[in-house]
Backbone:
């Protein structure tokens, strides 16, 4: 999976370059993001391009959160499209993740 | 029951038990359900994606090249998707509810299916399992 990462004040902002995060590509997502989780404590995940997210995609995001929390860091997400926000609310992820409307807001408030 | 015979669109696709087919499945459903409001179509897309994932991961135990038949139907007042597979049957009632505190990374699939659908019927069998999903249209 192609991702774009940008380091801003020791925070890594990850822009996903795909339109879905599902059971068919979560392994690739984990492979792409694992080195960034190892190298940085705070990660902002930009989900702007994601039109479809399933339970496996939610699980892979929760896995990132747990790994970062385990080392004293944190995961933030931004730019959710409506179907993504709906599934976040369905599985209550919106209660345990900081969610921002825009990439800029996420960076400013992290 | 008579209304069930009067479908508007009825299409079937045969796919292999590989997780890479999920995008193809969703594209097939969007094509069949063209012109229907976003909300029921997005809910059906999500539920069907979860059912297909369960069949591939659990019924077929991640072994590719098994067959899954998916039939999508539009009726005047509902949309339906029916799955047929030959994998190992499961008992839906035996699946526990997921935890929502962030401690669990999996186990949300069946919960999502039950939340977004109006009807979910699973009929396990030794030779063919049938799964029926339906959502009423406004």
Residues:
């Amino acid at each position: 999976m192609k991702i774009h990462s940008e380091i801003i004040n020791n925070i890594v902002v990850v822009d996903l370059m795909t339109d879905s995060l599902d059971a068919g590509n979560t392994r690739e997502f984990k492979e792409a993001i694992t080195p960034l989780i190892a190298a940085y404590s705070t990660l902002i995940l930009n989900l702007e391009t994601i039109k479809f997210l399933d339970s496996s995609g939610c699980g892979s995001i929760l896995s990132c959160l747990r790994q970062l929390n385990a080392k004293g860091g944190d995961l933030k997400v931004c730019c959710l499209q409506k179907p993504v926000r709906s599934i976040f609310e369905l599985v209550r992820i919106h209660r345990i993740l900081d969610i921002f409307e825009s990439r800029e807001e996420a960076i400013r408030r992290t | 029951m008579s209304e069930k015979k009067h479908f508007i669109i009825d299409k079937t696709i045969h796919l292999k038990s590989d997780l890479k087919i999920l995008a193809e499945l969703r594209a097939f459903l969007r094509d069949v359900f063209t012109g229907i409001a976003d909300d029921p179509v997005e809910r059906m897309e999500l539920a069907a994606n979860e059912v297909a994932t369960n069949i591939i991961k659990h019924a077929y135990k991640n072994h590719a090249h098994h067959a899954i038949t998916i039939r999508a139907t539009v009726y005047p007042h509902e949309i339906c998707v029916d799955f047929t597979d030959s994998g190992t049957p499961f008992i839906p009632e035996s699946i526990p509810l997921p935890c929502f505190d962030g401690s669990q990374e999996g186990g949300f699939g069946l919960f999502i299916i039950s939340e977004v659908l109006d009807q979910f019927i699973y009929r396990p069998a030794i030779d063919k399992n049938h799964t029926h999903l339906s959502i009423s249209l406004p």
Summary: The longest strand of chain B covers residues 9-16. The first helix of chain B runs from residue 2 to 5. The beta strands of chain B are 9-16, 67-74, 78-85, 119-123, 129-136. The helical segments of chain B are 2-5, 22-32, 38-59, 109-116.
